[in-house]
Design brief:
Putative endonuclease; 4 helices; 104 residues; GIY-YIG endonuclease; alpha+beta
Length: 104
């Protein structure tokens, strides 16, 4: 993965757990922020740090448009999207060089 690449991502705190959708131009840096609690708010409050889905885009406007679309989706649509691509809800961040997130 390139260092700077527009991405939409979904984090969870476990299979069928709390979901968070976001957008970034640097997925590695953003994951570090989420996983170390540097971003205060929803994700740190609920322990939402497992990367269960992400999409890469050519440009930020396209990624932002997709994030807005996902945020409007109901929960079951997001779960279906995750399970189509990651049926075991594996933490995809591990393949990007991160250690496993400790259970809360």
């Amino acid at each position: 993965m390139k260092e700077r690449e527009p991405c939409v991502y979904i984090l969870s705190n476990g299979k069928h757990g709390t979901l968070y959708a976001g957008v970034t131009s640097d997925l590695i840096a953003r994951l570090y922020q989420h996983r170390t609690g540097l971003i205060k708010g929803f994700t740190s409050r609920y322990g939402v740090a497992r990367l269960v889905y992400f999409e890469r885009f050519e440009d930020m406007p396209s990624a932002i448009l997709r994030e807005k679309q996902l945020k409007k989706w109901n929960r079951s649509w997001k779960i279906n999207l995750i399970e189509e691509n990651n049926p075991e809800w594996l933490d995809l961040a591990i393949d990007l060089g991160f250690e496993r997130v400790k259970a809360r």
